[in-house]
Amino acid sequence: MILNDIPHTPVLTKEVLEAFSDIKQGTIIDCTLGYGGHSEALLKSNDNIKIIGIDQDESAVLFSKKRLEDFGDRATILHGRFSDMISKIKSIDIKGVLADIGVSSLQLDDKKRGFGFDCDLLDMRMDKRNPLSAEDVVNGYEKEKLEEIFKNYGEVREYRKIADLIVKERAKKPFASAKELSSFISKHLRSKKIHPATLIFQAIRIEVNDELGELKRLLKNIRDLNLSNATVAIISFHSLEDRIVKKSFKEWSKNCICPPNAFRCECENNHSFGEILTKRPITAGDDEIGRNPRARSAKLRLFKTKL
Ligand SMILES: C[S@@+](CC[C@H](N)C(=O)[O-])C[C@H]1O[C@@H](n2cnc3c(N)ncnc32)[C@H](O)[C@@H]1O
Question: Does 164 reside within a domain?
């Protein structure tokens, strides 16, 4: 199937293919199928592998079903949250798990999704079935809760000031669109390199889609699958996410799970799930960043589970 307008350029594709290149046959779960770029590249790289692709965004699922239809039963596509879907997969030959966390370019660019600064909606839901939208967060959250998400998810320095201003403004008239919100923020926050509303929008998006909670549950559920000799590859775009991945991989690699204050090891010192393959995360080279600026903040971490 040839699709002329592929709305998303995947990041670190060469590095992802390299990471899974030792898999001779079996199934790779692509937890963030998106527009199928990574999955298609993996399916083309080896005729003996299958893909199970998951996405919570219905439009991504529909697009990828078309894109991957020529691979027949080598590509199975599931619609839902990766944290729910991954534990339901019963395949016995899972040899890889890939997650390319975050939003797709189409989600950001499509005016009907309410992620972008100039959208007429204030939505930001990756999954339309999600009961919480950006409008609920901006117009309904208590000031302290807004401060917390701007501080923790956006790392916004003036988080108190902007939460206070939003609460006062919405008391006069609730925010009805992303456009209104971004121009309001631009009047009150200064920023040289990025749009002044970037970090606030990022924080709201993370909250609406519970992105950090999803990542933590995903990692827990991958661990619970107890995979043998499988590669786990996680790409993240946010330092908080990268920290969560790094911490989980460190936990997974530990043999000793005794409490830190234990006098001596009493756990048999054999609890490691495998080894960390990337001491430091893999990042994109200048070439890729030149072609796809979104790759600038991508970090890929790899883990190999034991035999
Ligand atoms: C960066 S894009 C992935 C792009 C994909 N690798 C490609 O090659 O086109 C991230 C995708 O993950 C999906 N996503 C994010 N969080 C999710 C979750 N918790 N469960 C399922 N899908 C999720 C988004 O809807 C989006 O389509």
Answer: yes
